[in-house]
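Exercise: predict the fold of this chain.
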Amino acid sequence: MGIEYRWDNDAQTVIRMVVDGTWNWNDFHKNLRRMTFWLDSVDHPVELVIDLRASHKLPAGAFGHIRSLGKKIHPNGRDRVVIIGLDETLARQIGGEQGVYQDSERLIRFVPTDEAAQAVLEEWLS
């Protein structure tokens, strides 16, 4: 299992969670909770990027777990998330052709590359 997170920019306005190898949803959500301590260290909103490109295989129950993401988990967190590298078929099932899932509590954008994620973040942060 390899799940780590880091600041994605010097301004500490984006945290990137990188999921690598074999993992399970318990580990994933545990790391999300640990990440909130980093959000405690700043006094401004922080975006979340989840990078799944190095993940070997999504654990069972991916549809429900992915749809649960993007919900605000901390006062400095946002009610949106960018997910890089989710299986294209699953991303379409959740987010349609446009790669966007939105309900009253969250916004999830599914993208294939860092460049696409950066474009979404620039849109959100402008």
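Check your answer against the key: Residues 92 and 99 are 6 Å apart (CA to CA).
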